[in-house]
């Protein structure tokens, strides 16, 4: 039993259209591209290429998984972030485009600052999206990246190697709520996209997130603010004078996080908006 590229694409499209998946044609294309290791142009210039049974079976298996809500990025094992390709699998949060505003802010800040070495601590590294894109775009940076999950650290290590950033990013497995890592130097920047969803809200997120993304990366405790309270206080001892504390936040957490920072003596606090005009990041300076 064999078929053609055209038929396979059509089959995937029809099958994915029966579910709530938003882009059935695109997702069918992406899965075929992934399995054949070809680009999109190839699909439409080789519609009659014969596809063997092994590929058809694999395709059906992946389409079925996707129909159950399994994230397309875990199927493709890849997500682009800040123009870089991140390997992602179950066990790490899929990097989100909204996080890029935080990175862009830090890159701009770094370029205005002519220090020889810019030391950054990233808390909750996951796949390495924040740490590695900062290291990639800020040439004088040195990044300490902490994550509680050994699995996440392994994935970040793989991405670090792939991006050739071995010398400038140090990965540390540690539960941050047990204390900051013991690093003698003070930091110029502490950055974090911590878990910030209130525990009881996780089950009502879209299925891709609630069922398949790691709870460890999402669960911010009863009110979603546990990590902000802890990190904001601890970072006071870790940051240099005027050092930056930078957070990604949930759309309705801007004022709460700003107040946590204010209560801890931070100054020049500002809230950045995301692509949809919602609060998405809070930045402050150590006073
Ligand atoms: N942005 C993620 C979501 O809402 C949450 C990430 C986090 O808790 N840090 O899907």
Automatic annotation (TrEMBL):
Pfam families, per the entry: Methyltransf_31, PrmC_N
Domain Release factor glutamine methyltransferase N-terminal, chain residue ranges per copy: 8-76
Domain Methyltransferase: 115-193
Reaction(s) the record says it catalyses: L-glutaminyl-[peptide chain release factor] + S-adenosyl-L-methionine = N(5)-methyl-L-glutaminyl-[peptide chain release factor] + S-adenosyl-L-homocysteine + H(+)
EC number: 2.1.1.297
Family of this protein: Belongs to the protein N5-glutamine methyltransferase family. PrmC subfamily.
Protein name (record): Release factor glutamine methyltransferase
Source organism of this protein record: Senegalia massiliensis
């Amino acid at each position: 039993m064999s078929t053609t590229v055209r038929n396979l694409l059509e089959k995937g499209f029809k099958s994915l259209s029966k579910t709530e998946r938003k882009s059935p044609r695109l997702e069918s294309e992406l899965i075929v591209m992934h399995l054949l290791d070809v680009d999109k142009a190839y699909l439409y210039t080789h519609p009659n290429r014969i596809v063997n049974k092994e590929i058809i079976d694999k395709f059906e298996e992946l389409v079925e998984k996707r129909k159950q809500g399994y994230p397309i990025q875990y199927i493709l094992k890849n997500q682009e972030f800040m123009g870089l390709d991140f390997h992602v699998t179950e066990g790490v949060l899929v990097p989100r485009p909204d996080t890029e505003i935080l990175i862009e802010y830090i890159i701009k800040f770094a370029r205005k600052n002519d220090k020889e070495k810019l030391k950054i601590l990233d808390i909750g590294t996951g796949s390495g999206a924040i740490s590695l894109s900062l290291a990639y775009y800020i040439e004088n940076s040195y990044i300490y990246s902490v994550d509680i999950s050994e699995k996440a650290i392994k994935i970040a290590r793989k991405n670090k190697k792939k991006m050739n950033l071995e010398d400038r990013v140090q990965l540390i497995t540690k539960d941050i709520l047990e204390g900051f890592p013991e690093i003698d130097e003070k930091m110029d920047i502490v950055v974090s996209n911590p878990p910030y969803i209130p525990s009881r809200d996780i089950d009502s997120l879209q299925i891709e997130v609630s069922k398949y993304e790691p709870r460890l990366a999402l669960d911010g405790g009863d009110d979603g603010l546990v990590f902000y309270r802890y990190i904001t206080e601890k970072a006071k001892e870790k940051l240099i004078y005027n050092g930056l504390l930078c957070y990604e936040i949930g759309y309705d957490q801007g004022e709460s996080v700003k107040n946590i920072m204010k209560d801890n003596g931070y100054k020049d606090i500002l809230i950045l908006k995301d692509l949809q005009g919602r609060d998405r990041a809070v930045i402050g300076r150590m006073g």
